Amino acid sequence: MRVLVTGGAGFIGSHVAVALAEAGHDVTLLDSIHPAAHRAPPATVAPLTIGDVRDAETVARAVRGVDAVVHHAAMVGMGVDLADLPEYVGCNDLGTAVLLAAMARAGVGRLVLASSMVVYGEGAYTCPVDGPARPAPRDLADLAAGRFEPRCPWCGAPLLPGLVEEDAALEPRSGYAATKVAQEHLAAVWARTTGGTATALRYHNVYGPGMPRDTPYSGVAAIFRSALEHGRAPRVFEDGAQRRDFVHVRDVASANVRALDAALDAGTLRAYNVASGEPCTIRAMAEALSDAFGGPAPEITGAFRAGDVRHVVASPERARRELDFAAAVPFAAGIAEFATAPLRG
């Protein structure tokens, strides 16, 4: 299959391109080399067109003759503040719309979309009194007072976190999250209109070799690793008890290969959690990384960001059942490798 990978020179996209090529696909890449992710054009495993996914002429040329698109071109991370919002919406949502329009004109009928667990907002919770519950957006006064755990909106009891499944309500709580929800909706419209098939892979916390160094757009693993390289302790927000699922980038690349080969109903979008199934706290991840690196122990700061959520842990069962995908890199081994793996400059 001839496959275009947008964002194919980026952290995840480059690993996906390698995995697709190793699986026998004919891969081409489109990447704008955005300064939030790149300081210079990197080496790639496939032909690279440097261009913006928002540019209709560039995208039209890139999709010509391809059988499928794996779409990773996006601004990621929390960013700095709302001044970033136009760039997030432009890169992520306008860029996706331009791409989908070009795919429709070119008759390309298969899309794998890099989505994110941020579409859920908070994860799944149960109140011991009232049953399943959705917490309200986090109150800044509570956060400032160190009250980080969400409470039942009806009785006020502490909520118990559980596994979020793909049919959960989407409730984005940051600008970046809102753009990822919009990408999924746009892809669903494209699939219904054209009869194509779209797969949305909702990545959980991806880490591994080649992550960008510490920037406002980096993942937490890269931020902690960059601190250790500079001899500083990783600074953990809140009390460090936030639960996440850290999934290795090679597993994410494998999920993309599986998704490209999956049999789907025409005219549909199907979403999948891409997660390791080994949830842990942010504090535990920071401690494991510090131990493996041989650096200072993490500092628990009590600081917080308004757009952060408390617990997001996924059920990986749908991907296991329908894509025959299961993460293969254990957390301990992956973190040990990441502690000394090269990062992007």
How would you describe the overall organization of this protein?
- There is one protein chain.
- The chain has helices spanning about 10-20, 55-65, 85-105, 140-145, 175-195, 220-230, 250-260, 280-295, 315-320, 330-340, and strands at about 1-5, 25-30, 50, 70, 110-115, 125, 130-135, 160, 195-205, 205, 235, 245, 245-250, 270-275, 280, 300.
- The chain is α/β, with parallel strands linked by helices and about 350 residues long.
- It starts with a strand and ends in a 7-residue tail after the last helix.
Helical content (DSSP H or I, runs of 4+): 25-40%
Secondary-structure element pattern, one letter each = EHEEHEHEEEHEHEEHEEEHEEHEHH
Overall 3D geometry?
Answer: globular
Structural class: alpha/beta
Q: In percent, how much strand structure appears in the residues?
A: 15-25%
Radius of gyration: 20 Å
The largest β sheet comes out as: 7 strands, parallel
Number of DSSP helical runs: 10
**Strand ordering within the main sheet:** 3-2-1-4-5-9-14
What is the number of strand segments?
16
The average pLDDT is 94
- End-to-end span in angstroms? 33 Å
Q: Give start-end ranges of low-pLDDT stretches.
A: none
